[in-house]
Design brief:
Blueprint (H helix, E strand, L loop, with lengths): L9 E5 L2 H4 L12 H5 L18 H15 L3 E5 L2 H4 L8 H16 L3 E7 L5 H5 L7 H17 L5 E6 L1 H10 L10 H25 L4 E7 L3 E3 L5 H24 L4 H10 L1 H10 L4 H5 L5 E5 L4 E4 L29 E2 L15 H14 L4 E6 L16 H19 L4 E7 L18 E3 L6 E3 L1 H12 L3
Parallel strand pairs: 1-2, 1-11, 2-3, 3-4, 4-5, 5-7, 6-8, 7-10, 10-11
Antiparallel strand pairs: 8-9, 12-13
Helix pairs in contact: 3-5, 5-7, 7-9, 8-9, 9-12, 11-12, 14-15, 15-16
Amino acid sequence: MTRSIPADFLFGVATAAFQIEGAAFEEGRTASIWDAFARVPGAVANADNGDVACDHYHRYAEDVALMKELGIQTYRFSTSWSRVRPDGGAVNAKGVDFYSRLVDELLEADILPWLTLYHWDMPQALEEGGGWTSRETVDRFVEYAMTMHDALGDRVSRWTTLNEPWCSSFLSYTGGEHAPGRHSVEDGLLASHHLLLAHGRTVEQLRERDAELDIGITLNLTVAEPADPDDAADRDAARRIDGQFNRWFLDPLFRGSFPADIVEDVRRVDADAVASFTDAVHEGDLETIARPLDFLGVNYYHGEFVSGTVPADPPPSVPSGATYPTGSPYPSHEGIHWHDRGLDRTSMAWEVQPEGLTRLLQRVAADYDVPALYVTENGAAFDDEPIDGSVDDAERTDFVRDHVAATLDARERGVDVRGYFYWSLLDNFEWAWGYGKRFGLVRVDYDTQVRTPKRSAREYARMITERTI
């Protein structure tokens, strides 16, 4: 059955600077935390570093032309702090000029530029001075943000402050799985607060400069479900996952407070870390963090199906986590077991659960006074290979159709969700997985840099043009 797509529903694609640009140390750019982390032995699979990535820095015009060919309406990209203000210091004119040329190319192609200020690539020099655990980093970030507005504010109307602060705080400073690779409960808590404070102060400054800008933030959110809804331990496991992953950022942004239940969960494990965090939240910080926004970006990849009782003989680990016994890097996860409920999985072993996206959007809209919503990332990695010069990625094609439909289901149920961005335009440097996982609508041959639109790209283009699923 054919389904219509509203004419005002916006279709886009998303990328991140470090994952696609390359030109790591060209024209004034200096090392970011990801340049340093990728050189730590064993930190990144299937790659030595991201120095070349997709070579977008040199091929941006080709990539914009490709987006135009596919009918992409808006492009969500990030700017590199390390390219614009190397080492967190003076403005690098050549770095700024690259983004100015990119924006001009997008506008010429009638593609709406959607700028993300922070997609995890802090200058390494700032990390060596404390990184996001230091309140001074907030000041440096606001300087960088205003540099970007000085350069692009006349042409860019959509501004995202941060992408997925859960990843750039807890995954990076507590779990050690992302740059800078720290393993500290205290550092993760401090980083989460300073990231949100940097967001709030940037919103204030951008509003002062131009009240007409559309400003928001993007959070990676999940649907946490108890394996047995009648089991108190399972319900508590879902509460803890939801609290640490979702509410830890939604609550301060839209309610002006951190979730008290999660603060107490962590205090029972590491009281000193919570004391340090509490001291770091100064008077007025939460009011700054909760400044009104024009949109909330929601990134969704999979749900969480969890139990609070660890089996005596647990089955093999499943993707969205594993069994976390005492000693988990994330205090709120201790004693939680992730169950396999038999859903299809991507090559990341993530469950394919489109209806979870519908429920997530409904929940966020029901529980919080949120502005307009956009699905700013949703995508899947599959092990697709070219055959006779084409890539018939049927699984990804179905994934895109199903998740766009799930987004529209939420819209039809009254949620003000206005658009969908597929992650990602290109196969790219996929963080700790290096070049080993491919999310792109467009295949990239990393040896030749040849771009090949996959079947999913052609279907996405058809959906945009014909406005049907």
